[in-house]
Sequence to fold (265 residues):
Amino acid sequence: MYDFSGRVAVVTGGASGLGLAISTRLASHGALVAVFDRDKEALPTVVARIEKSGGTAHPVTVDVSSRRGVDDAVSEVESTFGPVNILINNAGISVIKPYVEHTDEDFDRQIDVNLRGTHFLMSRIIPSMIDHGFGAVVNISSVAALHYTVPHAGYAASKAAVIALSRDVAFEVAQHGVRVNIIAPGLIAVERSATKVPYLTSQTNDSGRPLHAPTSTRPLGHGRPEDIADLAAFLVSDQARFIIGETIPVAGGTDLQVSMAYPGE
Fold:
């Protein structure tokens, strides 16, 4: 469907969850994918999986909240593959607790990874895209930036800031051939990890209900990482040439009504 042959893509948080699905999808369409992640142990497995499917990938261990780490990581990609044409800012963390229980460290870490990490990658990569007159960026936000979801005010604030940052950058760089857009996922079933505890890839939740079954607040149940990868691939493709600065929810209807569900629904 898409042809990304010869294009160089960077996917942050690319070793698991949404990032893994996006990395795999871009590589399947011919992109040379640099998989950025702080999980050094997981990266070789991801790269091997992509290469086994006929794609090309390169592992880069980096914490996106580190300015120097991002500088070194981008330099490594450019020396390995060449200039970056596609950037997916997916790396993120969420601290789920009431606001009054948030520590300063909780708040700062979410801002550092979710917002500053997005800024670090865009500010290092977009200038080269402008020089070449071509590039596409997709930043992963969340429906939490648009609606109240669960108690994670720091996360919601950081993801709302990602939308504002992306929108303004999109307007500034569009005239230079660079497109920036935003995806706002809803409830997506991803593997349990240090940064994503609540959502699992198992077929049922703790109550025994099938994970992807509809509920009164989730008419399509939980989404799958591939649902986000599908849209990301479209947004960085030539078919999306006239789309900039848009925030597109991929939420299966969870953002369409005020919840009046019984507890546990």
User: Anything to note?
Assistant: The helical segments are 17-28, 43-52, 67-80, 104-132, 153-173, 225-235.
